[in-house]
Design brief:
By secondary structure, the chain is α/β, with parallel strands linked by helices. The protein has one domain: NAD(P)-binding Rossmann-like Domain (Rossmann fold). It has 9 helices and 7 strands. The chain has a 7-stranded parallel sheet, sandwiched between helices. The radius of gyration is 16 Å and the shape is globular. The chain starts with a strand and ends with a helix.
Length: 220
């Protein structure tokens, strides 16, 4: 049996991917901050759940202790930052520090904590990125900077850990609460649902290509 740990798994892409992996027979450990939604999702999927904040080192340690065997780590949990999205000239430095803590430092800390298990199984790391990491969208500078940093963290990890596959994926716009918070419910409602990108992610995990950055279009 294969084992996966998915962060941000109570809704959106994390939950959609968890459902697909559960259907494929994977053993799952799910985490997210929203305890009620997380526990409900885990019950429905027959998965284990450990609610908490991935930016909390103690929670990261508990997660790592809970997965002595690990084939796939999905760093999906992410923060958006202040809304309405501020221009960089107006971005509160403390808010940007907090966003880097959630979107960059926390995923790396979880990678560090689970690397022994991943190395043992020659597992894989899937970091969820964004087109904001490489494009200049007004108002998206803070969020985009964190995703650009996560991309480079992934890139270097791939070079340093040859026995662990590392992919960083831009799934494109999806109909999620985060997108609605950023652009409004009407525009977000026109985006495809998270479930639509899951088949591409399953192909990625199943085919185990060379490490690198992938877009949704490249995977379909």
């Amino acid at each position: 049996m294969k084992h996966a740990l998915i962060t941000g798994a109570s809704r959106g892409l994390g939950l959609a991917l968890a459902k697909a992996l559960a259907d494929d027979g994977w053993s799952l450990l799910l985490t997210a901050r929203g305890e009620e939604d997380l526990m409900s999702a885990a019950f429905d999927l027959g998965a284990r759940a450990l609610p908490g904040d991935v930016a909390d080192p103690a929670h990261v340690a508990r997660l790592a202790d809970s997965v002595p065997e690990l084939d796939l780590l999905v760093n999906n949990a992410s923060g958006l930052g202040p809304t309405p999205l501020p221009r960089l000239a107006d971005y509160p430095p403390d808010a940007l520090r907090a966003l880097f803590e959630t979107n960059v430092i926390a995923p790396l800390a979880l990678v560090q904590a689970t690397l022994p298990a991943l190395r043992k199984r020659k597992g894989a790391i899937l970091n969820i990125s964004s087109d904001a990491a490489v494009e200049a969208y007004e108002g998206w500078g803070g969020y985009g900077a964190t995703k650009a940093a996560l991309d480079q963290v992934s890139n270097v990890l791939a070079a340093e850990e040859p026995d662990v596959a590392v992919w960083w994926v831009d799934p494109g716009e999806m109909r999620t609460r985060m997108l609605a918070d950023a652009v409004g419910p009407e525009e977000a409602g026109a985006a495809p649902p998270p479930e639509s990108v899951v088949p591409a992610l399953l192909r990625l995990v199943g085919s185990r290509p060379a490490p690198g950055r992938f877009t949704r279009g490249a995977l379909e």
